[in-house]
Write a structure and sequence with these properties.
Elements lengths: L1 H11 L5 H10 L15 H22 L2 E5 L7 H14 L4 E5 L25 H11 L7 H11 L3 H13 L3 E4 L2 E4 L12 H11 L1 H13 L2 E3 H7 L4 H13 L3 E4 L6 E4 L2 H9 L3 H20 L6 H11 L2 H17 L3 H15 L6 H22 L4 H14 L5 H17 L3 H18 L2 H17 L3 H14 L2 H4 L10 H16 L2 H17 L3 H18 L15 H14 L2 H17 L3 H16 L7 H14 L3 H18 L5 H14 L3 H18 L2 H17 L3 H14 L7 H14 L1
Parallel strand pairs: 1-2
Antiparallel strand pairs: 3-4, 5-7, 6-7
Length: 759
Amino acid sequence: MKLDKLETLLARGGEQDREAAQVLAALLAIPTETRYPPIDLPPQRIKQRTLEILVEQLAGLAKQKPVLAVYEDVHWIDPSTLELLGLVIERVQRLPALVLITFRPEFSPPWTSHAHVTQLSLSRLTRRHGAAVALRVTGGKALPREVLDQIMARTDGVPLFVEELTKTVLESGLLREVGNHFELTGTLPPLAIPATLHDSLMARLDHLAPVKEVAQIGAVIGREFSHDLLAAVAPHDEGKLQDALAQLCRSELIYCRGAPPEATYSFKHALVQDAAYSSLLKTRRQQMHARIAAALEERVAAGSEALPEIIAHHCTEAGLIDRAVSYWWQAAQSAIQRSAILESIAHLENGLRLVRTLPDSQERVRLELDMQVALGTAFMAAKGWSSPATAAAFARAEELCERVDDITLRSVADYGRYLVYLLRGQLDAALATTTSMLRRAECDCDQATIMIAHRCVGITSVHRGDFEAGRKHMEASLALYDPNEHAALAYRFAYDPRIANLCYIAHALLHLGYPDQAFEKYTELLQAIRHHRHSPSAAFGLFQSALFCTYSRDLGGYKRDSNFGADEAIVDELISISTEHGFSLWRTAGVILKGWVLTQAGESDSGLAQMRDGIVEWRGHDAKLFVPRWLLMLASALSRLGNPRAALDRIEEGLALITETNERWNKTELHLRKGELLLDLKADEKAEASFLHALTVAQDQRAKLWELRAATSLARLWVQGNQRQRAHDLLAPVCGWFTEGFATPDIKEARTFLDLVES
């Protein structure tokens, strides 16, 4: 029946797609097995489709007639709903629809910069308007002046308070109805009218004493509660329960949607729920929370769906700490599986607060370590590898590792510390950490950790400019990878091992002079991203794909005629998925790369501004890794704008940072770009020295493609200085070394120039 209603609702919005019904049914925990096959979509795609369907539902309704969509109390919004609201606001500007959003002043809406968004700060009601609200509540019958004066004085122009206080007075017995007005039954006592909204709501509940307990139980369940759950925990038979609910609805303290036993109720306002909830003694509240948790657990045991975070909340409030921790842990794992990283962080933090109140034991320490490692991994995705939150989470995990003998958890803690070192540019410490991790894993014959450690040593080696060692370690890691056994490691080690290895094997092969093989890995990487179910891995892979394109042709990877041309869509997708899931580090990288795309497309001013802002933001993540790359790209953009001196300053800044961090994989290119800039400034001798330095670095790193670039630049300079033989003797053996990649721009250019020198 519920599925039929859902399909009918979707049809009203013009959505007939079977997948739409499946996706929303899964969100609402409506069984679909008898009608549809299982959904074969990765979690991040399910989330994306959910948002798309909800937005299209609004659009479909708006095509039929104008729509008013109201979102109330947005100050309590969760991350996923906030994301949905952002999409709605973006779409609604092209629809015959009005979106009305209410929130408290402390909420900072992220949409105010949109031209079609207007923000209104509501002032308090004037006495005239307040009196009009009170008159509406009384059904148009006038109140005695002294009563109205007290209502106006005590409500301070707050509409909800005016409504509730007026209702309180009407229910108090102070007044009697006479024709078209009310009169006092006697003199007005000084304290007859409550002084606060809370007192007013409490007075109204007290006047409804026979049904007050039902309101209290509903308040313990939540702002919204179902009839069947209320019936499961309320000590009333069905008839009395329905009578009580009907009375609460008539009093407008709660609203009803649907008919019992499938009805759903919601409190008129969160303050009404708060008043009912706070009227309970603490012990009574705990008892009710415990009964609700037990009822939900019975449903789960019977095969019904129940969100673990809901049970966790009730167990927490009931003081059932062990069960609460277990459910917070389940909720976090469920959120991680569906790529809801921000929600998983909230669940883990809730669980960890409770874990630390449990008696000290090995079991408690192990549980805390499990959750602490998961928290660190989630922070890596959401806030960045080197954020203070990530570092603190893994520091605590390392402390706990001293008390628990668990190789896997130790390796995850080591991995987290390694990423902090890596992003902060502490490459020597990163290499020492991962080398130690590999050594321990080999001693314990732990194949999964050996695979991860090889990958980490390989990535660090590539960043240090040791491309051959990096390639060997990552190929060793990739050889150990079994998708059936190791795909789930992405949830512990931040990114899928195969995707991470493919990224850096492609980088290493390109630098080592095997562009065709590098491009094969790049293509394989893009395919892996499309088929993976882990959104942090997808974001990381998209970032590395775009970055690879900037290396593939002298920072011209975005040129459409390049063999390694990156579609701008890759960068846009990187920004989209990172924004959607809150991956701030990779969103920042996307901003920088997007700026680069714009400069290459001729939009120099906007692109340059975006790159500069992005680099500042990147450094704000306490990140030094990749900064030399960003500075090199910025220098190239400045050079295109005809500002070689400013570009040269950025190159020098990048070289100084390489000296500090040992991130040497960009060193050759920085010296090459420096030489080109010096040529622009007519400093030929200094340019030659820079090209020679670039050549030496490339040879030391066995980076044959970069050696070719340096040799080509030097050969051009030498030919201009009438040193043709010297140019030939340098360039010919380097060109002759290559066995593949003859269609790539670098090799074609070098061979063409060599032919010119030889002619």
